Amino acid sequence: MPSFSAGASAQKQQNYQRRRQQVREQRKSLPIASVEKRLVDEVRKNDTLIIVGETGSGKTTQLPQFLYDGGFCQYGKVIGITQPRRVAAVTVAKRVAEECNDQLGKKVGYSIRFDDSTSNATRIKYMTDGLLLREALLDPLLSKYSVIVVDEAHERTVHTDVLLGLLKKIHLEEGPGDILAFLTGQEEIESLERLINERARLLPPESSKIWTTPIYSSLPSEQQMNAFKSAPAGTRKVVLATNIAETSVTIPGIKYVIDPGMVKARAYNPVTGMESLIIIPVSKAQALQRSGRAGREGPGKCFRLFQESEFDKLVDSTVPEIKRCNLSNVVLQLKALEIDDIIGFDFMEKPSRTAILKSLEQLILLGALTDDYKLSDPVGHQMARLPLDPMYSKALIVSSELKCLEEMLIVVSMLSVESIFFSPREKLEEARAARKGFESLEGDHITLVNVYRAAAECLEKSKNANAKERTMEKALTRWCRENFINHRSLKHARDVHSQIQGHVQQMGLNPSSCGEDMVLFRRCLTAAFFLNAAMRQPDGSYRALATSQSVQIHPSSGLFRTKPDCVIFNELVRTTQNYVKNLTRIDPLWLAELAPQYYATED
DNA sequence: GAGCACTGC
């Protein structure tokens, strides 16, 4: 029936024209349409341009089309637009292809990991930032692109940051001089180091070489020292640092600083006792401090990977620690100084009322304060003398009564320092095997005692061999390396141990050891850390008894797989989930027996 | 099955 199909086709044609008209009108009505000419001119005039506009103003869909119409795709060049998420890259590409009245994959296409719709004809290419970074590895100058649009740049991922840095060209366009980049943590440093090294292999052979060197606090000091060495001639040193390089150490010879403007900060919820590390923008003071690390010995430059308007929005200075940590120790110290009215105390930076009340409550539960908020005698006075977290001070006093002070002194020393175990990603299995040798089925506290004693034994052996102090220290360093123990943390723990040992002797606590009786020791841990008990739930998760929070055992714990019915823990941290760390298996009945003031009524 | 800013007593 030819007439019918002719009619249908005419109808189709009409619908199509109407749709085209709609699209044209819609495009014209977008706020960005009025500045098309100016935008294209500005892009042509500037190497880097930051465009700010409301959501829905049409930046993502229109700008690439303006640039295309403005001639940015001559000679086969491509306009690349990055998106922080895969879905966005696909949907925006589809939308723009429709607006261009073209099939997806021709003029307009997208490319994401495992899915590439582009062809040789593609001139407007939407992609994820991670994918563009991969392309940059193969072609550092991204030579097939005439323009790169980094969309949603405020949704800053490490990828966008590195990308923005690369686009500023982190290396090829600037003169010689070392670079210092501020990152938030070990993981970010490690992944960026890998990326840079992959990319560095593909640099044009005539350009100078790149040498990356990480520095962060849990890195063993031998490796930290690398950051202070100078690079061979013709090589540029790139130091990837946490804010350890902001104030704690000064690396000589830095000419360029790269500051993405973020920092990892501790956050604390006084009600739940939950601690977390969150990534937040730096303060103005921090940003200035960071830029000041460039060119200390000559002219330098700081590349801030954020906009000037963002800088103005930064807070002037970092929120002081006192407003974001557990206050129990501060309150205990004030009480010992006979300052009774803590709430009314004239703090320079006043912590929240809730935080103060919570710590007063905790100190009462620990027996450091009486019910009328007075320092108790002798426990409160003893606790205030010890430079430890009040819960650890309490643990020492309890262990003196229960006759396992020696073991508890080791535990609180080891818990008071940074992580004892060092597990570099590339030697994870070896590190795990080494740790197995110390591990106790009863829990992490006894594991820590085992590590401490094994280290002491190592020192004892070399002492018996009449070794000099320096030889002994070397033997310990080697032992640490072989056993994947962080030497610096262990040394710190030994220092804390000897300092606290001095205090407990002066205080007249009862020196004692539980010997092989680990039940006694676990009971003592229960008596000390009863506020941090958790019970396994039918679904395998745990419930922290004091706050009823749902928590999981952190995978770094020796009890991660065993999942005992009841545990006491020392740390409550929130990362991807609520985690408890440093655990020991206990009998739930011990709680009512050893902390009746807290548990008896509940049973 | 996580991924760990810094300092001080």
From TrEMBL:
Residues 1-10 have a biased composition (Polar residues). Keywords: ATP-binding, Helicase, Hydrolase, Nucleotide-binding. GO terms for biological process: positive regulation of transcription by RNA polymerase I. Residues 162-338 form the Helicase C-terminal domain. It catalyses: ATP + H2O = ADP + phosphate + H(+). Residues 40-166 form the Helicase ATP-binding domain. Residues 1-28 are annotated as: Disordered. This is RNA helicase.
